[in-house]
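Today's session is about reading a structure prediction critically. Students often jump straight to the picture, but the first step is always the sequence itself: look for stretches that repeat, for charged clusters, for runs of hydrophobic residues. Only then move on to the predicted structure, which in these notes is written as discrete structure tokens rather than atom positions. Here is the chain we will use throughout the hour.
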Amino acid sequence: MNFLWTPSSHFNLANLFTFVNITAGLMATYFITQNNFILAIALAWVGGAFDIFDGKIARKYKLSNEFGVQLDSFADFLSFVLVPVFLIFQAVYAPQLDPTLLIAASVISIYYVISGLRRLIHFNLNADTGEVEKYFTGVPTPLGAILLWLVYLSNAYELLPASIVIVLMLLIGWSLNSKLKVRHP
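Below is the predicted structure for this chain, in token form.
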């Protein structure tokens, strides 16, 4: 079981937590296709919890490595970019929008996905393994996902129409690569 505590191991404890995040994201995607949005959201939150702990474990036990940094970004892309966009598309846009607005929603969804991917790639290129900055520049993808969940819930409780969801997704997508300063927790 030494591999759990070996920084160079692809299956060290921190990376195993990241694999659980990926598993939760994949399962959430499946449940979105089944229109089981509550279970999908619960799984996304499970993934988020494991995302918090993988970094803490990596730093505490000095398990950080380049593989883990890349793996974590892949997990973030799946759980905090693809899953919330797919959820909103399936739960909000597809059933509520006319064909013209659905095209606009598709373009904005793709914009959000590309913005999230760009942010994660930029972060990886500029990150030092094991280092934590005091502030993020731009909204981190997990916070972007939380904002999208709130937008989704506002629509689900009929507080926001789907057309406003499109605008908010655009703004949150923009914020991912903005110059906004967000304090690291």
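Discussion point for the tutorial: The domain at 2-183 is CATH 1.20.120 (Four Helix Bundle (Hemerythrin (Met), subunit A)).
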